[in-house]
Amino acid sequence: MVKITGTNTFIDVEIDGRVARILGELGAGEFHCLKASMQEWLVPAGQKISEEDKKMIIQRVTEKTAGSHLIITFD
Hints:
Blueprint: E1 2-6, E2 10-15, E3 18-27, E4 30-33, E5 41-43, H1 51-65, E6 71-74
Parallel strand pairs: 4-6
Antiparallel strand pairs: 1-2, 2-3, 3-4, 3-5
């Protein structure tokens, strides 16, 4: 399960009990994420986000938001 919450400047993505905060910018119908901002998990605190995890997060978020009213994109 993927849960996405956020504000105008970041989203929190919860996957399998872990939470990543991703900085970005809210635009008209999309939230543009900065991939480079994915450094550490919020939960568990301080644990590094691996390159494999980054790819998994991007894939799961992209799949969840495809066709929704708010598309999430990554640079």
